Amino acid sequence: MEFVEKRYGKDSQFVLKADKSVEAVRAWTEKIFTEEGTEDFKLPKAIWEWFVEVILTTYPKAESELIRRMILVKVIHTREVVRAGYDIAGGEKEFDWNQYRVGTVCLLHDIARFDQALLGSYSDGVTNYDHAAVGAEMIEKRNFTEAELEGVQITSVIEAVKCHSAYAYEGNNYYAKLARDADKLALLRSMPEILAAEIGGFPEGDMTEEALSAYKKGEMVRHRNMKTRADLFLAWLAWEFDMNFAETKRLFVEEGIKEWMIAELKQRGVNLD
């Protein structure tokens, strides 16, 4: 299936190397955002330069190879969220998308994650660091002017970043909805690689009643109710309930992601029919 193919390819070699050179990181970051598959990216010059500046300011502060790799993986994830954002927006023709705002909300959705990496974890709970709120504050303090932003409304971007990882979003900002969907789709596309790297530490075991109950109610599974790998697959499957756009749901199905997760659950004795 398409989504199972290695999406990172040669990029992972740079991550594993964890080069200490800031200039090497700059060149690599610019390369992966301009190579094949990124031709449709529309990123205001001021936004792009600030994004790179944040990475390059943070990277020298990393005290270990692990943290340097965390930062580099987040750069790749950001590219994949931008890619997913354009994939979704491209299929949602009823909206008059500003292509630069699509790129901006996706590029900046995790802007605070680079500083958070220095704390050794991307868990907001473990680090006591609300990356979405901090990211929104960073953008607000940067004080971009509208003249710099190709018509991007920065207040809309701030709201999108602030709300992109909340358990639920009930606002009307469809760029915030896009950031949420693009983040989910990018992560779902990379889940086989995340599992292969044994990230998350969820053991095999029976599904918990709390996780199954939430899913049957059509709700997303709370992190506190995820105890086993079966719970993890069910939680990812339940992200469909929070997808805002028909195109996101279509890609979730047509790329084989939903089928793969259901098969993984069946292997663990969980039949959702």
Textual characterization of the structure:
This protein is mostly helical and 273 residues long. The protein has two domains: 2-181, Orthogonal Bundle (Hypothetical protein af1432); 200-273, no CATH class. Helix content is 59%, strand content 0%. The chain contains 14 helices and no strands.
N to C succession of SSEs: HHHHHHHHHHHHHH
The proportion of residues in beta strands is under 5%
The major sheet is characterized as:
none
Helix content: 55-70%
Mean pLDDT: 90
CATH architecture of the largest domain: Orthogonal Bundle
Q: Which structural class is indicated by helix and strand composition?
A: mainly alpha
Number of domains: 2
Keywords:
14 helices, 0% strand, Hypothetical protein af1432, mainly alpha, 59% helix, globular, 2 domains, disordered N terminus, 273 residues
Short synopsis of the structure:
This protein is mainly alpha-helical and 273 residues long.
Q: What's the topology here?
A:
Elements: H1 11-17, H2 22-32, H3 45-58, H4 65-91, H5 99-108, H6 113-117, H7 124-127, H8 131-142, H9 154-163, H10 174-196, H11 209-216, H12 229-238, H13 246-254, H14 257-267
Helix pairs in contact: 1-4, 4-5, 4-10, 5-9, 5-10, 8-9, 9-10, 12-14
